[in-house]
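Q: My hope is that you can spare some time for a protein that puzzles me. Underneath my words sits a plain record pairing an amino acid chain with its backbone structure tokens. Those tokens are not coordinates but codes from a learned vocabulary of shapes. Thank you; the sequence and its tokens follow:
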Amino acid sequence: MQLVGETTATNSFHSNIMLVNNRQVLNPCCCSLRFASSGGYSVLHSSGLQHWFKNWQGHRKHKLAASTFAAAVGFFHRRRLQLWLEKIGAIEPFSGNLATCWSNVKEEEALERYKLITGNSVLFPEFQVYGNTNAGDDWLGASPDGVVDRLVYGLSSRGVLEIKCPFFDGNMKKATPWLRIPLFCVPQAQGLMEILDRDWMDFCVWTPTRSSLFRLYRDAEYWDVLKMVLSDF
């Protein structure tokens, strides 16, 4: 499989995925790409479109991960119900779409831009379980894009990095970085800081031409309310 990277901000990701041997079938209605074979293997599951270091779906299976916190508290229509069905095994868990593939492919580029802007070094921990430090809370977990450890005036400053690469439905003409953090991102952000025991978060929004960077701080009161709602799971 060949992935054709964008050369200008006007390219469409939908039209930039190709397969060798002409075995790709594209359904423009649902944007589902599959091999024309009896197995019906989804192109979206190709190794070249997976995250470059996060490979721990098995660890997440029986946890409520920070990336699902917004859905769990009802930010998205019907997604809370879908998450319930996933957790009880009634349906298969969400495994990705074109937007998540775009993020997987572009996150390393976004990371390099973040390091260039801030000068920060970034470490990449494995999937973190909240119960490691809080007995009885091991049903909560988090998968950070990176962590940052710095010394500021001789004092330790511990942060977590979250990278977003918005897809804009594949239309890079619309690709402008967010001017503010959407409210639906806050549950994930506060969850990451709490589970990893970090004081702040750098929230980086990447597009092919520009980026925006925000600093959030840990909010214990917000977390207490959020955790109470999450406990339904």
User: Anything to note?
Assistant: The chain has one domain: 54-230. Residues 10 and 173 are 5 Å apart (CA to CA). DSSP finds six helices and eleven strands in the chain.
